[in-house]
Every structure is written in C-alpha cells, then in structure tokens.
Amino acid sequence: MTSTTTVAGRPQRSRLSRLIRELWFQVVLAAVLGIAVGILAPGLGEDLKPLNDWFIALVKMIVVPVVFCVVTTGIASMDNLRKAGRIGVKAIGYFLVLSLVSMLIGLVVANIFQPGAGLHVDPSSLNAEEVPKTATEHATFTGFISSLIPASLLGAITGDAILAALMVSIVFGAALNMAGEEGVPLTRGIKALSDVVFRIVGWVMRLAPLGTFGALATVVATYGAESLKQLGYLIILFTATCVVYVLVVLGAIMRACRLSLFGLIRFLKAELLVALSTCSSEAVLPQLVRKLEILGIGRPVVGIVIPSGFSFNLDGSAVYLTMASLFLAQAMGIDLSWQQQLIMVGVMMLTSKGTAGIAGGAFIVLASTVTAVGHIPLAALSLIVGIDRILNEGRVFINVLGNAVAAIVIGKWENDFDTEQARRVLHARTTTPPQDELDTAKVSAGK
User: Fold this and answer.
1) What is residue 417's DSSP assignment?
2) Are 356 and 283 within 8 A, CB to CB?
3) Of 21, 79, 111, 409, whose CB is crowded by the most CB atoms within 10 A?
C-alpha cells in the first residue's frame, strides 16, 4: 500500500517541480505576489519599482546585440540580396495595412460606444502640469530620419537605438554578403557571437519574475482603485476591443495561414506575460526572435520583420490612439466630424511610425497628434495619464502577438517557413523548454 502511494505520488511531484521551473509560471506567481503587495503594503510596493527598472535595463543591454547578430547573419547568408529588399517591402506593406485597420477599428468603437460622452470636462479645470514632460517631445518626420543615422558605425552597435542598429546591421550584412569568400570568416565569427548573446538572453529572462513582481507591486500601489473607477468604462471598452481584435483580426490571419492562434499564444505565453507585466514589448524582443526561429521561420525573415515590426507594426498602440483621441474629444464636448477624424488617422499613421516598443511611447505619439491636429487641448491628456499604464497592457499584448503573426505571414509569403514544423510546435501539449535547451528543441522539432 505504501509502495503504491509512493509510486503514484512521484509523477505528481515531478509535474509540480517541472511547473515551478517554467518561466511563465514563475511570472504568473510573481504577478500575483506583486498585486498582493501593492494592495496590502502600498508603501513597500512603490519602493519595489527599481526591480522592474533593473530588469528592463538588462534587457535593453542585450537587445541591440541580438538585432545586430540576427539581421547581419541573416542577410550575409542570403543567396540573393534582392530577397532582403523583397522581405522589407512586403513587411512595410503589411505593417501599413494592419496599422490602418487597427486605427479604423478604434475609431468605429469609440464612435459607437462614446466612452467619453457625459463627462463634460471644463478645459479651464485641467492641469497641464499633470502631463508628463516627455509628452511634449513630439515625433516628427525629420526626427525619425535623424534617429536612423547613428553618430558612428560602432556606436549604433553599442548604443540602445533599435532603428539605428537595424540600419547598420542591414548595411553590414549586405557588405558581408557582397564580400564573398573574404567575408566568410567574419560571418562565422558573428554567428558564434550570436550563440553567446542568446545564452546571455536566457540568463536575463530568468530574472523576468523579479521584474514582474516589482512592476505590478508599483502599479497597484500607485494607481489603486480610484483611477480604475474614474475611467473604468474606457478601460473595459479598450480591453474588450483588444480581445476582439486578437480573436477576429489576428485569428482570421492565422486561419488563412492554416495555423492555430491559441497554439501560438500558448507557445509564446512566457513572452506575452513578461510584456504584459513590464508594459514593454522591447523587453521580449530577444526571446521572441529565438522562439520564432524554432517555430520554423527563416532567420532572414525573423531578423528583418521583428526588429522593424517593433517600430512600425504597433497595432495595439494604433487601436489605443484613435480610441483615446476620441475619448478626450468627447470628454471635452468637442464634436469631431468624420473628415476631421480621418485627418487625425492620417496624422497618426505618420507619427506612430518609428516609436519603438518602449513603455509610454504611444502616449507621446498621442500628444504629438493632439498638438498637430489642434482640435483638442494638450492639457486634456491629464485625464488619462493616470490610467495610461493600465491601457498599455492591451497595447503591448497585441504589439508582441501581432508581430509574431506578421513574421509568420511574411515567412509564408517568402516560402521561408516550415509549416509542418510550426504545426508540430504549436500543437505540442508540452511546455516550452528552458532557454539553454532551445537549440535542442529546434533540432528535435525539425526531425
């Protein structure tokens, strides 16, 4: 009898131990603990903010090396440089279409449900000082072009500007490709560096639960129940729109690719949870690149689509921009005609490009658009600044998942996607292996 109990108990303990070692489970557990601390000990919760700041800083430290290694080796190993240009053109076209669709969805929802109607806010009662100073740093086309040009070649690789690093990586990879046999030793060296960089990524990602714990403890302690009650309708409406967007738009795209959306979400659960908790899609860029390669997407496609997508394909932010703009107009009693709304969408299509997936980026774009269009006073942003962090949850979820779907679409479009491997990975019921076992899993999935 004792023997039976012991034998029966072993699998259960084994499953539990495996679950505890899973990154996504550690992130969920840390999120629960962070919320509890924020509610029960708000003072301590506010003091835990550095945990999230440190985690984000560690991720930013490794993001640019990942972009450089992946993009450079991807382009350098191409048989034809035209493929790089073709991938880039297809990706930008896809990004523009999805961004427009996202903004129109936000526009329609805000017009139908009128989340800001009835507030009757007096403009003179608004405090412009509550608007963060960073919101006045408006995005401009010339500023965007300037951000593409680094001060030096090596400076782009050692800095933290993704767009500049992406441009240098493309140029460097193209030069290596054209160098032929003379560039092979350097290409091999960068591939070896890539293995080292991704090992560091694995170590950094193991600290994600600490970042999650600090982030949620601080958010709950700082923004508490008052902000949720004050603008609860907008939060619920935006969240519901995000859910519908994922299920309808991204679901339709995945069905067209004959793949499972829920399988993809399950495969990327750790990355999505980290993005949600830290409110930064940039925080999962290195890990996302690695996971999509395991899924069966070619390195050239992943290397170009994902880094550029995190600046150009922010569909969650696009939904937020139109909904938030109309909310502010409705709250101020400003009736925008459909012509004015379409002009606003056009301005947002320009100002929203080139903002990397950093927490708060969409708020800066919103300020830029409000100023450029001129129909809504900038001080109106103080109405939503308190809940912007909460709204950012839906934005980053769609941004990360949407870019993963974009990589799949471009991969299939380029015939650089192993559909059978993707189906095996997405339909697998087993959990994702640790980072140091990802290469083994990739080889096994390809058998």
Assistant:
1) B
2) no
3) 409
